[in-house]
């Protein structure tokens, strides 16, 4: 009896190994099929421009999703929009590009006999006429594939922009040490001044804003230029901001430095929210610099640099 049980166990084990082997072979074949379609896509996009062949890759209801990080909403494109972008690139004078899969990052995960997920990390390079190239993006992609008839078609793709800033000429980008307030009481004072001013800003308290702005105010904006009129800045705020926009300081971004004999400089990031949009709509953080002038304990904003 024991001998029969052992024989039965051996047979079952052999059949299990055969099944695992068959699944492995099927996964390997699927990996090759989807990798070939990946290669075809980027050959069309960056080289051949034979967009008629894209129907070999995409399902008619394909949707492309592009993640824009915590500062921006995820973008979407239909198949029509996606193909139009490829055609636009092919007919314009945009620089040549090259795309590569990073190492062994490409994976294929069968969900069932009719669905599969393909994921990997890719790098995009811009090629120069002189023969060099510049790395411009490193991103992770996840694709959903479905078997339609005897062929596999991509039904969606989600790209995560992992990295878009790279050192120039092999030199690492400078990374400062973590900020430590040089004068704790001053940091608390300016943090409070910031809070009071922007509470007035968010609630259209024109009197507080008027008293906080110096008469010699200069407001530098990277998109609209310089405004050296306190009156104009206040009027623009009343007209364009009141009841329409609210401001949020990005937690942990505030830096304060003393300016001997004058006051202090505040450097931080903040976000502006359009109050007409749904609550939670993403807003990109922007950097600002404020010079605070201290006159006998009365703090006023004398200079603003607003960067977007």
UniProtKB/TrEMBL annotation:
Pfam families: DUF4440 (PF14534). Keywords: Signal. InterPro entries: DUF4440, NTF2-like_dom_sf. It comes from the Bacteria. Gene3D superfamilies: 3.10.450.50. Residues 1-21 form the signal peptide. SUPFAM superfamilies: NTF2-like. The keyword Transmembrane does not apply. Residues 44-154, 190-301 form the DUF4440 domain. This is Uncharacterized protein DUF4440. It comes from Chitinophaga polysaccharea.
């Amino acid at each position: 009896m024991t001998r029969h049980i052992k024989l039965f166990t051996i047979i079952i084990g052999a059949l299990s190994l055969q099944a695992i082997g068959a699944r492995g072979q099927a996964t390997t074949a699927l990996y090759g099929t989807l990798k070939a379609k990946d290669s075809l896509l980027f050959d069309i996009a960056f080289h051949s421009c034979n967009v008629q062949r894209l129907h070999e890759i995409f399902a008619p209801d394909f949707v492309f999703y592009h993640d824009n990080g915590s500062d921006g909403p995820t973008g979407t494109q239909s198949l029509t929009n996606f193909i139009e972008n490829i055609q636009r690139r092919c007919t314009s004078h945009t620089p040549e590009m090259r795309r590569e899969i990073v190492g062994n990052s490409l994976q294929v995960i069968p969900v069932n006999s009719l669905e599969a997920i393909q994921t990997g990390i890719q790098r995009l390079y811009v090629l120069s006429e002189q023969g060099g190239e510049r790395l411009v993006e490193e991103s992770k992609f996840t694709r959903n594939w479905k078997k339609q008839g005897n062929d596999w078609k991509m039904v969606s793709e989600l790209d995560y922009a992992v990295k878009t800033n790279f050192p120039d000429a092999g030199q690492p980008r400078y990374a400062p040490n973590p900020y430590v307030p040089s004068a704790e009481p001053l940091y608390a004072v300016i943090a409070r001044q910031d809070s009071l001013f922007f509470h007035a800003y968010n609630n259209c308290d024109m009197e507080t804003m008027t008293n906080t702005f110096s008469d010699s105010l200069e407001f530098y904006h990277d998109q609209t230029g310089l405004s050296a009129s306190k009156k104009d800045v206040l009027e623009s705020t009343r007209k364009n901001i009141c009841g329409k926009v609210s401001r949020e300081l990005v937690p942990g971004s505030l830096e304060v430095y003393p300016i001997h004999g004058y006051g202090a400089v505040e450097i931080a990031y903040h976000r502006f929210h359009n109050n007409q949009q749904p609550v939670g709509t993403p807003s990109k953080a922007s950097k600002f610099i404020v010079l605070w002038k201290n006159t006998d304990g009365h703090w006023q904003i004398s200079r603003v640099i607003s960067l977007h």
